Amino acid sequence: MANQADMKKAMTTAAQTGADQAKKMMEDGATQARATVEKSMEAAHKATADMMKVAEDAVEFSRGNLEAITKASQAYVTGVQDLSRQTMAMFQTMSEQAIEGMKTLSSVKSLKEAADFQASFAKTSMERAMNDGVKLQETALKVAETSIEPIAARMTVAMEKMGKPLAA
């Protein structure tokens, strides 16, 4: 009977040891699973944060592009208005000079006086037209430079961004 009691005790001890080992394996497995899930969640959060950063950067870049186009458009419209004012002023001055020239020409006393006035008037008109043309050309060039400046700056930013990795 002692033998049977020893066997029962040995079986109980073995069962308890097996249960303890099974419990430890379950706890270790749960700990490993929890750690794996936590790492996966961290990676998912980081990936989501990175994607949000890229999206925010894209929105900010687009906003900068829109601002550049708006500035370029405003500069262009303002410049064209200035150019139009200068052109109208030039034509008004030319018209006034032509009227004055006709008045003066109608009051000349001789053909020589008319020819002299006409030569002087033509020379003065040509010089004024050349000067006005140069001024208009300079204004048009300034309009083009001012209008393209914000867009050129955005192109520089775009090129810089293209040189950097996305996650940077």
Automatic annotation (TrEMBL):
Which InterPro entries has this protein been placed in?
Phasin, Phasin_subfam-1
UniProt name for this protein:
Phasin family protein
> Which residue ranges does the record assign to the Phasin domain?
57-155
Organism name: Roseococcus suduntuyensis
Q: Where is this region: Disordered?
A: 1-24
User: Which superkingdom is the protein from?
Assistant: Bacteria
Query: Entry's Pfam families?
Result: Phasin_2 (PF09361)
Signal peptide (UniProt feature, chain positions): none
